[in-house]
């Protein structure tokens, strides 16, 4: 029970999730898992049953490590992950009685990368199958809400900072309207053979600004459609909307340092590692 988003940006794949697990009680824990070794990297954003998903991740890591270092291409990683996840899914989900499968179900959004193969590629799993993504993908109980938002904001080669903001907005909407989504928002990026890891960021103030903007946008639609308003009254309302949006922009400016640090950490941590690795790795090595 969650919301997870994977997105391709001009800097490579971006993953983000909420942190709320809902079972007998609610708890907040990490939902993005990492593997980085010998110039290859994988980020798994999990949805659904935590135990089954973590087991599948751990088994996938063991399978990746069994690949000889020189053969660890993205396609090799994808194949071995598929071969690992499918039998686990069949045993722990498919073979259960139909009324028990929902609580055992799990899926992933996966970013994979290797030095020399571009910034990285994005995949999702469904019932043990693994499918490549060429834009964005949303999973989990809140995925439909995130999908609804992103289909109007995502663009090919979206700049990384705009991608982070769009993902943040989509998560905020999902957490606001889906009872099974909540907690903090987590962000991670992958570039070539390295990941950013989880970058700490207090998202609550930014989410409050985002939700306030959504409220103002809904009010604006109502005002535009209210044909009983006179022109003077309508002009006055539009002027007030402009002032409200300016106030929101000022609020964003007041938190610009935190916001810029998040984007900087997600991008530059990867770029510095890639640059250093490129120096170390000789052609054909």
What does this structure look like?
- The protein has 285 residues and is of the alpha+beta class.
- It has 2 domains: 4-198 and 265-280, Aminohydrolase, N-terminal nucleophile (Ntn) domain (Glutamine Phosphoribosylpyrophosphate, subunit 1, domain 1, 4-Layer Sandwich), CATH 3.60.20; 204-254.
- The chain is built from 8 helices and 12 strands.
- The protein has helices at 50-65, 74-94, 101-104, 143-150, 160-177, 204-225, 231-254, 256-280; strands at residues 4-9, 12-18, 20-22, 26-28, 32-37, 40-48, 106-114, 121-126, 129-133, 136-139, 185-191, 194-195.
- It has a 5-stranded antiparallel beta sheet with strand order 10-1-2-11-12. Strands 5-6-7-8-9 form a 5-stranded antiparallel beta sheet.
- A hairpin with a 2-residue loop joins strand 8 and strand 9.
- The chain is globular and about 70 Å long.
- The model has no long low-confidence stretch (mean pLDDT 87).
List keywords for this structure.
285 residues; alpha+beta; Glutamine Phosphoribosylpyrophosphate, subunit 1, domain 1; 2 domains; 5-stranded antiparallel beta sheet; 48% helix; 24% strand
């Amino acid at each position: 029970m969650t919301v997870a988003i994977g997105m391709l940006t001009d800097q490579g794949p971006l993953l983000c999730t909420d942190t709320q697990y809902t079972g007998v009680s609610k708890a907040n824990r990490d939902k993005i898992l990492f593997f980085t070794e010998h110039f290859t990297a994988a980020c798994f954003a999990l949805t659904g049953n935590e135990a089954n998903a973590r087991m599948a991740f751990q088994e996938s890591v063991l399978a990746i490590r069994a690949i000889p270092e020189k053969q660890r291409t993205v396609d090799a990683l994808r194949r071995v992950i598929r071969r690992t996840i499918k039998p686990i899914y069949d045993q722990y989900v498919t073979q259960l009685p139909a009324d028990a499968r929902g609580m055992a179900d799990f899926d992933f959004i996966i970013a994979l990368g290797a030095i020399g193969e571009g910034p990285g590629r994005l995949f999702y799993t469904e019932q043990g199958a693994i499918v490549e993504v060429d834009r964005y993908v949303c999973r989990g109980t809140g995925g439909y809400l995130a999908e609804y938002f992103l289909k109007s904001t995502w663009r090919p080669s979206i700049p990384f900072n705009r991608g982070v903001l769009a993902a943040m907005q989509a998560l905020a909407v999902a957490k606001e309207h889906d009872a099974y989504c909540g907690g903090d928002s987590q962000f991670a990026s992958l570039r070539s053979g390295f990941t950013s890891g989880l970058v700490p960021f207090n998202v609550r103030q930014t989410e409050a600004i985002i939700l306030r903007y959504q409220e103002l946008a809904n009010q604006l639609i109502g005002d535009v459609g209210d044909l009983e308003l006179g022109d003077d009254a309508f002009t006055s309302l539009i002027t007030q909307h402009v002032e409200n949006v300016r106030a929101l922009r000022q609020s964003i400016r007041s938190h610009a340092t935190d916001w810029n640090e998040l984007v900087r950490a997600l991008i530059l941590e990867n770029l510095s590692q890639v640059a250093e690795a490129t120096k170390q790795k000789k052609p054909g090595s």
